[in-house]
């Protein structure tokens, strides 16, 4: 644990910010694997770090942000210890003050799906005792792996009604930072901290619903989710059930296809 290195970035403290000015700390040639036309391909790029960042690095089940830095495209953003490593198409001069700009549509979508997952997970546990073992944020549909062999259709319908009621109630979402050694963290539900944890730990609370450690970006009020649609279930591994869902703008896209 090194208190000289932070894990909580500007993007996590200011989830709704779209632009941020910062200083280039390091930049060097690198290779990074990205998806090109549906296939993985290693390309030449520039590994770049900044004093801080408005771009979320991949982690906690949430994909990374994309965007640009002074007009240069950002191909990937990954976390390495207390650093957010950005892979850019072109180099930047070390010491230069630059402006980062995120792809807001992508960021907001990820915020909606991630906060929806926290909500569904908490309510499924409260109503039926179904613990969440993992989750996956997909490009169009996401799923939660629940620790149960099956979920009856009527339970899915009641769960959907319950989570949407929380949205209609405009339930606030709060984020608080704790020191990684704070004993209060032992009282908070979590799957465990990563071994390379550095700096503060974020705790996300959906008021009167759930409190959980999380590094992701979230909405500040469940009203921003608009709605959640539980689509279907699928048999998972080891007697688990996968519950597929969409939230926010994705619900509208599903409706348009109907």
Can I get a quick summary?
One of its GO terms (molecular function) is Ser-tRNA(Ala) deacylase activity. This protein is α+β, with helices and mostly antiparallel strands and 258 residues long.
Task: Walk me through the topology.
Elements: H1 10-13, E1 19-36, E2 39-50, E3 67-69, E4 72-80, E5 83-88, E6 97-102, H2 104-128, E7 132-136, E8 142-146, H3 153-168, E9 173-178, E10 201-206, E11 210-213, E12 228-235, E13 241-247, H4 249-257
Antiparallel strand pairs: 1-2, 1-6, 2-5, 3-4, 3-6, 4-5, 7-8, 8-13, 9-10, 10-11, 12-13
Helix pairs in contact: 2-3
Cofactor: Zn(2+)
Subcellular location: Cytoplasm
Domain Alanyl-transfer RNA synthetases family profile: 1-257
* Low confidence ranges: 1-6
Q: Helix count?
A: 4
Structural class: alpha+beta
Average per-residue pLDDT, rounded, comes to 92
Instruction: Determine the strand fraction and express it as a percent band.
Output: 35-45%
Strand order across the largest sheet: 1-2-5-4-3-6
Shape: globular
C-alpha-based Rg, rounded? 19 Å
Q: Share of helix among residues?
A: 10-25%
Question: Tell me about the biggest sheet?
Answer: 6 strands, antiparallel, barrel
- Write the H/E string, N to C: HEEEEEEHEEHEEEEEH
Distance between the termini: 51 Å
Total strands: 13
Cofactor: Zn(2+)
InterPro entries: Ala-tRNA-synth_IIc_core (IPR018165), Alanyl-tRNA_Editing_Enzymes (IPR051335), Thr/Ala-tRNA-synth_IIc_edit (IPR018163), Transl_B-barrel_sf (IPR009000), tRNA_SAD (IPR012947)
Family: Belongs to the class-II aminoacyl-tRNA synthetase family. Alax-L subfamily.
Pfam families: tRNA_SAD
């Amino acid at each position: 644990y090194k208190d000289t290195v932070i894990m909580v970035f500007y993007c996590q403290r200011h989830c709704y910010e779209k632009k941020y000015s910062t200083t280039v700390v390091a930049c060097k040639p690198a290779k990074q694997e990205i998806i090109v036309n549906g296939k993985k391909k290693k390309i030449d790029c520039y590994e770049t770090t900044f004093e801080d960042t408005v771009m979320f690095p991949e982690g906690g089940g949430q994909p990374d942000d994309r965007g640009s830095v002074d007009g240069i495209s950002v191909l990937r953003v990954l976390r390495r210890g207390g650093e957010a490593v950005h892979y850019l198409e072109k180099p930047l001069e070390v010491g230069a003050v630059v402006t980062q700009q995120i792809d807001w549509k992508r960021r907001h979508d990820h915020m909606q799906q991630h906060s929806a997952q926290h909500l569904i997970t908490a309510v499924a546990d409260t109503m039926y005792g179904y613990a969440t073992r993992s989750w996956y944020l997909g490009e169009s549909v996401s799923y939660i792996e629940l620790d149960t062999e099956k979920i009856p259709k009527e339970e899915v319908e009641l769960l959907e009604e319950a989570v949407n009621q929380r949205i209609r109630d405009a339930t606030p979402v709060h984020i608080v930072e704790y020191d990684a050694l704070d004993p209060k963290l032992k009282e908070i539900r979590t799957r465990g901290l990563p071994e390379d944890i550095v700096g503060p730990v974020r705790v996300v609370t959906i008021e009167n619903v759930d409190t959980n450690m999380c590094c992701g970006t979230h909405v500040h009020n469940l009203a921003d989710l608009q709605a959640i649609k539980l689509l279907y279930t699928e048999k998972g591994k080891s007697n688990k059930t996968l519950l597929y869902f969409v939230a926010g703008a994705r619900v509208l896209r599903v409706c348009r296809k109907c």
